């Protein structure tokens, strides 16, 4: 299974809806392993260990969507009908996703199962196309 992960406001839901139009089925967040451990209270080493163990023992693929345009992220979050405290920390969580990915990449812990797509200043179409490109690359490497 392919999971799309990222902070609130990054565009997970709309990207997943667009991917479905292309016949690509992805799930919004892996709540049992990834989302549950993307907390500031969990040390990076522990998070990376949990993720690396998960990737070693699973066929799942996880794609982190990130957007480093802080103003855009806050605009998206504040446009929602309901805004909670996690929403207001979207830029901090975005950085946590980036830092976690980089930490794992530097230590060769990705197992070709964790990917990052930088959606900064991309239109929905370009964001979706970039995710499709990553998924196609994954499929090519499996063959």
Features:
143 residues; alpha/beta; Rossmann fold; 4-stranded parallel β-sheet; 7 helices; 4 strands; 55% helix; 12% strand; globular
The count of β-strands is 4
Number of structurally distinct domains: 1
Strand order of the largest sheet: 2-1-3-4
What's the N-to-C terminus distance? 17 Å
User: Oligomeric state of the chains?
Assistant: single chain
Look at the helices and sheets and give the structural class: alpha/beta
SSE ordering = EHEHHEHHHEH
CATH fold node name: Rossmann fold
CATH architect. name: 3-Layer(aba) Sandwich
Structure characterization notes:
55% of the residues lie in helices and 12% in strands. It is an alpha/beta fold and 143 residues long. The protein has one domain: Rossmann fold (3-Layer(aba) Sandwich). A 4-stranded parallel beta sheet has the order 2-1-3-4, with helices on both faces. Helix 1 crosses helix 7. The two termini are 17 Å apart.
Detail the topology: elements first, then pairings.
Elements: E1 2-5, H1 12-21, E2 27-28, H2 31-37, H3 44-56, E3 61-66, H4 70-78, H5 85-88, H6 90-106, E4 114-118, H7 124-142
Parallel strand pairs: 1-2, 1-3, 3-4
Helix pairs in contact: 1-7
Question: In a nutshell, what does this entry contain?
Answer:
55% of the residues lie in helices and 12% in strands.
């Amino acid at each position: 299974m392919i999971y799309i992960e990222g902070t609130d406001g990054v565009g997970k839901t709309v990207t997943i809806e667009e991917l479905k139009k292309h016949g690509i089925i992805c799930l919004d967040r892996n709540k049992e392993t990834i989302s549950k451990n993307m907390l500031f209270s969990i040390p990076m080493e522990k998070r990376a260990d949990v993720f690396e163990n998960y990737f070693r023992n699973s066929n799942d693929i996880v794609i982190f969507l990130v957007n480093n345009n802080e103003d855009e992220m806050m605009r998206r979050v504040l446009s929602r009908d309901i805004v909670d405290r996690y929403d207001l920390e979207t830029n901090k969580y975005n950085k946590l996703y980036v830092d976690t990915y980089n930490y794992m990449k530097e230590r060769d812990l990705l197992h070709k199962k964790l990917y990052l797509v930088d959606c900064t200043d991309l239109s929905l179409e370009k964001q979706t196309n970039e995710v499709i490109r990553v998924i196609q690359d994954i499929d090519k490497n499996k063959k």
